[in-house]
Amino acid sequence: MTQMPITDYDRQVKNCSCSYCGNNCDDITYLLKDDKIVGVRHACRLGASKIINDEDQRLLNPMIRNKEGILKETTWENALDKIAQLLTNSVRPVLYGWGETSVEAIKEGIKIAQITGSVIDNQSTICHGATIQAFQNVGHPVMTLGAVKNRADVIIYVGTNPMDDHPRHLSRYTTFPEGFFRPNGREDRTIITIDPKYTNTAKVSDKWISYDIGEDYAFFNTLRMILAGHEITDEEIAGVNIEILYELVEIMKNAEYGALFFGLGLTQSTTKQGNVDVLIQLIEDLNKYSKWSMLPMRGFFNVNGFNMALTTETGYPYGVDYSRGYPRYMVGETTTIDLLNRREPDFFMAVAADPGVQFPGYTIKHLVDIPVVQVDTHWGPYTELADIVLPSTRVGVETKGTAYRMDSIPLYMKKVIEKPENCHSDQWILSQIYNRIEKLKQENGDN
Q1: Within a domain: residue 198?
Q2: CATH no. for residue 337?
Q3: What crossing angle do the helices spanning 426-443 and 103-116 adopt, rounded to 10°?
Q4: Neighbours of 176 (CB within 10 A)
Q5: How many CB atoms lie within 10 A of CB 340?
Q6: Which of 83, 165, 229, 306 is the most buried (most CB within 10 A)?
């Protein structure tokens, strides 16, 4: 990461929000010189790099792919009209992404889905979808990161490595900060990592417990059995000595306030949703002895915001299908990967996401055969597939908006600098598309 000397700035903007991960750190200070960001304070290495070096491969003008297969710059009017026409004429459109944009933009996307009968889906469909299903089935012993900072004396990470993926998670919320009831910070806490791999998070933990890959359900169900007072005669479960499991249960039972965080290492393992189901039940069992809560480690800074907004509007968290004129939700039927694998969509628009990175190869192949639109800030693999590209702005840097932290706390993200001249916010772009679709339907006599 390259930046100008920390003293070489003429203005600073405090209490900004980072748009990197689900931590949504809102204590960031931007250092500006000539109205450009030249330095960052308090951000982690990943967040700072994104904020400062985010001009690389920047999309600056709308483009349409010509007959020769080359993306050529065009006017906003031409690009927006073309997208509105394609969406109006499509039978099975899909609107995907939304993890790195504002709630305000997401609400515009929901309006487009309603008026066009689209499927609207986000990254949850390929990451924490299993978690959300488990929450719907079993419940969610929820907590806030502030409660963890001030109260938690035992913190467990399962199938996640925040030291690399959410670098400030431990330093700001869980392990190292001084809390109201934990005035000594790290000394007042016990940190446990449960993961088959010895991660950087495991290195800074008091205890690392490694179990056999794919044996998540057996591992956590055994903890429930021990907690319930059943005698386990096996010498080891899931590759872990039974004495270690008994010791772990005692630590958890005797916690004053326990906080458990889990990631894709759990949700993408063999039993998927079942792993989260049994983990929730373990937390519920522990609450007979102590106070325990849990949270999934969400990736993109507003991937949770999409789930919150869509649930508020429709009652469903992701993979919502408006093709019948009302919202429907059925995992495996109305979710993006399944739709693409069945070759159903005849139009695909990705907003603040890159399916070229996120989707399996077989799934991506269908995008070559249908009209594809990209609404994003940067050039990426998906740009190579896109027929129309619309350059957007960075929330929390060039555009204000609302995002939901991983613990479902809404945060305001302020505008700090001016956007590139020919770029527009996702909210503006989507509202323009909606207005054009509405006009086309009125002209066609559609209700």
Answers
A1: yes
A2: 3.40.50.740
A3: 20
A4: 15
A5: 23
A6: 306
> Residue 125 has what pLDDT?
93
Helices and strands of the chain, counted as H and E runs = 17, 21
Query: Which residue ranges of the chain lie beneath pLDDT 70?
Result: 1-7, 447
Per residue in 309-332, pLDDT (tens digit) is 999 999 999 999 999 999 999 999
**Could you tell me which of 61, 71, 12 has the C-alpha nearest to residue 386?**
71
Q: What number of other Cβ atoms are within 10 A of residue 268's Cβ?
A: 14
Domain co-membership, 273 together with 316: no
Residues 397 and 376 in one domain: yes
Residue 330 maps to a domain: yes
Map tokens 């077989």 to a residue: 362
Per-residue pLDDT, 445: 78
Q: According to the model, what pLDDT value does residue 3 have?
A: 44
Structural domain total, the chain: 3
Are 148 and 115 part of one and the same domain? no
Q: Pick from 293, 335, 377: which is nearest to 60 by CA?
A: 377
Which residues span the domain enclosing 273?
A: 129-296
CA triple 324-116-386, angle to 5 deg:
125
Q: Are 259 and 252 in contact (CB under 8 A)?
A: no
Specify if 1 maps to a domain.
Answer: no
Please tell me the pTM assigned to this model: 0.94
> Do 257 and 315 belong together in one domain?
no
User: 133 with 281, same domain?
Assistant: yes
Question: Do both 237 and 305 map to the same domain?
Answer: no
Q: Please state the length of the chain.
A: 447
DSSP state of 275: H
> Tens digit of pLDDT for each residue in 262-310?
999 999 888 889 999 999 999 999 999 999 999 999 999 999 999 999 9
For residue 340, what is the enclosing H or E element? helix 336-341
CB-count exposure of residue 257 (10 Å: 0-12, 13-18, 19+): buried
Q: Does 305 share its domain with 369?
A: yes
Closest to 421 (Cα-Cα) out of 100, 61, 131, 31 = 61
With respect to residue 57, please indicate whether it lies within any of the assigned structural domains: no
Bridge pairing between strands 292-296 and 190-194? unpaired
pLDDT for position 7: 63
Asked which of 239, 273, 296 is the last residue of a domain, the reply is 296
The reported pLDDT for the residue numbered 255 is: 98
In the block, residue with structure tokens 């772009």:
429
Query: Does residue 311 share a domain with residue 343?
Result: yes
List strand residue ranges (DSSP E) for 34-172, in order.
36-41, 63-65, 71-73, 93-97, 119-122, 154-158
Query: Is the Cβ–Cβ distance between 120 and 345 less than 8 Å?
Result: no
**Residue 442 in tokens:** 């009125």
Q: Residue 177: what residue type?
A: P
